[in-house]
Backbone:
């Protein structure tokens, strides 16, 4: 499988990996089909993601996409983070093999899950802001996972 230099770099030297003890936004998502689990932890102050860490149990592409996604949202506002798509994560990594595209979708979902948690902790309904209740399965109807496994 051909991985770009950027994917290999983020896999070998992931950024922002570990625990974030003072996180006020935590999201965890998983994909049963491939067994990847992604946890995003953020510290948000005045609507800005001042710090972000991740823990990923999964393949190299899952680690690389988590790492790149944290780099892309660190220091950004919540609104900017919500605009981050899996395509943007893939482009920043100079592409992913088709069978690994779901990893970038997971990274996008992990960020959204953390932001949903952030609003829920404040007693704010996340749906009007994030556009999702947090139940991604019901929301996305499997979001195209597994299409590449034919």
Residues:
């Amino acid at each position: 499988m051909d991985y770009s230099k950027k994917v290999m770099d983020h896999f070998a030297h992931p950024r922002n990996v570990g625990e974030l003890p003072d996180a006020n936004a935590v999201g965890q998502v998983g994909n049963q089909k491939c067994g990847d689990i992604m946890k995003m932890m953020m510290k948000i102050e005045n609507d800005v993601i001042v710090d972000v860490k991740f823990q990923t149990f999964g393949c190299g592409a899952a680690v690389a996409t988590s790492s790149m996604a944290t780099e892309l949202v660190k220091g950004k506002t919540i609104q900017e983070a919500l605009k981050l798509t899996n395509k943007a994560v893939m482009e920043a990594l100079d592409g992913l093999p088709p069978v690994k595209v779901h990893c970038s979708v997971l990274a996008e979902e992990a960020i959204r899950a953390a932001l949903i948690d952030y609003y829920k902790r404040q007693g704010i309904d996340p749906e009007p802001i994030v556009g999702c209740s947090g139940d991604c399965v019901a929301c996305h109807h499997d979001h195209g996972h597994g299409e590449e496994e034919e």
The longest strand covers residues 36-45. The radius of gyration is 14 Å. The chain has a mean pLDDT of 88. DSSP finds seven helices and three strands in the chain.
